[in-house]
Amino acid sequence: MPVVTATDALLIIDMQVDFLPGGALAVTGADALVPVINQLGHLPFGLVVATQDWHPADHVSFRKRGGPWPVHCVAGSEGAALSPALDQARIGVLLRKGLDRDIDSYSAFGDNDRIGRTGLDGLLRDRGITRVFLTGVALDYCVAASARDACRAGFDTVVLHDACRSVKAMSGRILEALRAEGIRAASCADLLPAP
Ligand code: VGL
Ligand code: ZN
């Protein structure tokens, strides 16, 4: 059972209004993750990082520009805000991604073209982080991309499967694919003290 210490980081991916039920790109069950992620905030992580998908109004990922997604998480809009129920007191770094109108950025670590990087890998290393735990949405897009980049950057990478939801794919298949790449899966109960 993994014991959380100061060399661990919690990554909270895109827990924004537009990804919650009723939002522009709703992920089923995303609202149920909020109390789960709030609970994790009580553990002694060395750093808690939250991301926000933060797009210009004419972003390349939007259908009106031939992209796969409805308009979502437009910078500064209500839909781009973090869930109001998410406990923000523990968030040490708030990272916005997808700001460039011509390239999407699923991963917290950089753009999909793998050229533009956010610097998160260096930031984590500088803070002495060796292991990252991933939570949030969507498991099949931004969580998976972030987990792959974390693993590639040399961090021990753990997806907290019951603190994530997929938008399209079956979560089991995604976790299986990630596991084959060296990314582990654990449940929140593995980290939290028994009630
Ligand atoms: C996401 C699709 C488009 C995500 C963001 O957070 O997984 N998915 N933009
Ligand atoms: Zn997006």
In CATH terms, what is the architecture? 3-Layer(aba) Sandwich
Note the overall shape.
Answer: globular
Binned strand content: 15-25%
Note the main sheet.
6 strands, parallel
Strands of the widest sheet, in order across it, are 3-2-1-4-5-6
Helix and strand sequence: EHEEHEHEHE
Average pLDDT rating: 96
Instruction: Give me the number of helical elements.
Output: 4
Helix content: 10-25%
The poorly predicted ranges are none
Query: Which CATH class is shown?
Result: Alpha Beta
Question: Structural class, judged by helices and strands?
Answer: alpha/beta
- Using the coordinates shown, work out and report the CATH topology: Rossmann fold
Total tally of structural domains: 1
From the alpha-carbon coordinates, what is the Rg to the nearest angstrom?
15 Å
The molecules bound to the chains, other than polymers, are: pyrazine-2-carboxylic acid, zinc ion
**Tally of DSSP β-strands:** 6
Q: Please report the distance between the alpha carbons of the first and last residues.
A: 16 Å
CATH superfamily, by name, is: Isochorismatase-like
